Every structure is written in structure tokens, then in C-alpha cells.
Amino acid sequence: MHRTPHAARAPRTTPAPRGTRTRRTDHTRRTDRTHRTAGARAVHVRAGRLLAAGVLAALAAAGAAAPAAALGPAPVPATTDAGTPAVTWSVRPGTPDGPDGRLSLRHVLDPGASVDDAVVLDNLGERAATFAVYAGDGTLSEGGDFDLPPGGSTPADGGAWVTLGDVPGAERQADGALRVTLDPGARATVPVTVTVPADATPGDHPAGVVAELVTGEGVRLAARTGVRLHLRVTGEVTAALAPQDVEARWVPSWNPFAPGTVHVRYRVANTGDVRLAARTVAELAGPAGVGAAEHRAELREVLPGQSAWVEGDLRVWPVVRAAGHVDTRPWVVGDDVVDAALRTGSASVVVWAVPWSQLALLVVVVGGVVLVRWRRRRTAALVQSRVDAALAAAGVPAAAQPAGPERSATTPAGADDAEATPAVPAARTDTA
Hints:
Elements: H1 26-62, E1 76-78, E2 87-95, E3 98-99, E4 105-109, E5 114-123, E6 129-137, E7 139-140, E8 146-147, E9 162-164, E10 171-172, E11 178-182, E12 187-195, E13 203-204, E14 207-214, E15 224-233, E16 239-251, E17 260-270, E18 276-285, E19 293-302, E20 307-316, E21 320-331, E22 342-343, E23 345-353, H2 356-393, H3 415-420
Parallel strand pairs: 4-15, 16-22
Antiparallel strand pairs: 1-2, 2-3, 2-5, 5-12, 6-11, 6-14, 7-8, 9-12, 10-11, 13-15, 14-15, 16-17, 17-20, 18-19, 18-21, 21-23
């Protein structure tokens, strides 16, 4: 007969008497708890999906606008509803004969002079589309890309000097912008005239011409592309960068044997009148140059009168007070020609790097030493008190007890014992 091994046999169970309550095993309770947890998670997931759908619906009803795309010569596709062909278009420098291979419009003009140019708008999509074509002042996005303010903004610098010519079939808007509708594969050449005021200041005046897709009145997708206008007015120019609004914040390390972190943040301002790239360096050190550290960064472009933020971390030891400086070193961008000295800007920075973790470690070490000494003294005092109590219980006079572990140099050895213990006469033994 085959017998089931002891480890594989099921444990015997005794049925509960009638009228008593049977408790479920831990396994059953865990299984029920697992089912309830899974059900709760499913409810949370469904609630999260419903909440996300509600937020999207609210955004669509409110007509939220997507961020504008950075300017560039590459074609830009715009997504549409399912089943509707996408719209793809491009804007490039050119002539009435078509694009001429340039990447941007570049002109150097005297005050009061003007020049004629053109951009070519192509509808590369599979359906007709309407575009708003307008000019504006050049700016930089947070990522450092060249861009223009959104449509409807009033230009105040180089963009105000740009006039768009007439395009057959286009509608002229009140602000000078054009509303151009193109069939699939159609092209329109937009004349561009740049007129520099007679009192214009020398230097760079960045601008651009963009074509933005015009959609319905619901959700407005601000998808656009354009052509950059490098416009320089002749005259004596200044090329200078300066660090401004320098901030330094000390973050100590929890490890007393590791350096802390100094978070540096500053703004690189173009205080000249030509665009420049920047190489920046932030340096910090303790007294006598102890624990020197630095952070380097590069900015590919900073426009005149504008600025860009730089952030970085420096590994600095807690030297109580760390001091240094932030330098901004300019250099020429691309094919630009700058007939001026490149001026480096500098700003001092000071941060208090208090060694909190090291001080805490010192407090712990000193406290430990003091505690150990105190415990030793307390233990010695306790032992001495017990010895004194034992001697007193044995009838030893208190005056005969030694005052301390060290004996007097003038007291001969064994003197204390002779005084404390009475002499016992030797026993006489009589012999026959």
C-alpha cells in the first residue's frame, strides 16, 4: 500500500461543534484582502481615466493653445482629426522664381536705407489650408531657440521695420499681416521690404517672418514656422556680456566626510548691441584657495538687450566661507563679423558653507568622551562606596581605612595594617 509522505499529508481538521463560530484561516483572510485591494485599484484606475478625460474635455472647451514651435526652414506638419489629411508647409527665403537655398535673410543696412527681399510659402499637405503670415521681433525661447512672439503682438524693433507686400488672393489684416489660403501643393511668394529708420541705433536688430496655420474657433493649435532675419545697422558697435542677479545657495552633505553642494544661478545679459555666444565659468574657493571648485557652461546665442539664465552645481567642502566670481566670456556667433573688442563681464559671489554635519560629528565624539569619563567616575565612586560599607560592616574603624588608592610616602608599608589589626599573642605549647 502506498503511503503519503508526512510532509505531503494534509493536516487533520476537527469539525467545530454546532453553535460555535468558525474563524477563517489567515490564507483566506489574505485572499479576501487581496481581492478587495485589487478591486480598489481598479476603481482608482477607472476614476483616474475619467478624470483625465474630463480635463482634456475642459481644455478643448476652453480653447487652450499649444506652445508655438521654434522657427526654422524645415517643413512643419500639423496633426488633425482622424480621417483628415495632415497639413504640412514650409517658409524659406527665395525669389519670385522659388527658394534660393538661403537659410535666413541677412542684411547690413545704413540708417535710413531699405532693401527688398522675399520668402516662399509652400503648402506641402494634401488639403487646402489658410496661413497667417506676419513679421515680429526676434527673441529666444527658454531652450535657446530663436522664436517670435505670438501673432497679435506689436513689434517694437526690427520686426516693426518689416513690411509684407501684396500676394494675389491674400487678405490684408489691420496689423499688416496677410491671410493666405493655398491649395494642396500650391506656392505663394511673399515680398518683404525692410526699411531702417534714420535714427536707428547701430548693431543687430533680430526679426523674422512666420507663417502660422489658421484653424477653427475651437482648439487653436499655434503651429508655425518661419524665416529668421539677421538685420544689422552700420555704425560703431559694442560687444559685451555681463553676469547679473547672481545667486548662490549652500546645501550641506549628510555625510561628514563628503563635500557639500553650492547651487549657483545667474543671468547672462547682453549689454552690447550685437548678438554673442557666451562661455561662462563660476569659481569658488575657501580661505587661501582651499577647496577650489568651478562650473562651466556655454550659451550658443544671447541677443542684444536680452539675457539667458545659467544654473550649475559646485562640489565645495564646508570651509565656512567660500568666495569667488562668475565670468562671462563672449565670442562671435557663426559667420557674424564683429569689429569691436569682446568684453568679458565678471561678478563676485560669496556663500557661507557652514560644516553642520562635521559640527554634529564633533558634538557626538566629544559627548561620547565626556559620557565615558563620567560613567567611569560614577562606577569608581559606586565601588568605593560598597567597599566602605563592607569595611564598616566588618567593624573596621573609618579612621583606619585608607583615604585613597595611593599611600603616603612617609608611611612605612604595613603601618596601617599594624594599627588597624590588634596583636594576637602566640600560643604557648608546653612540652613534657
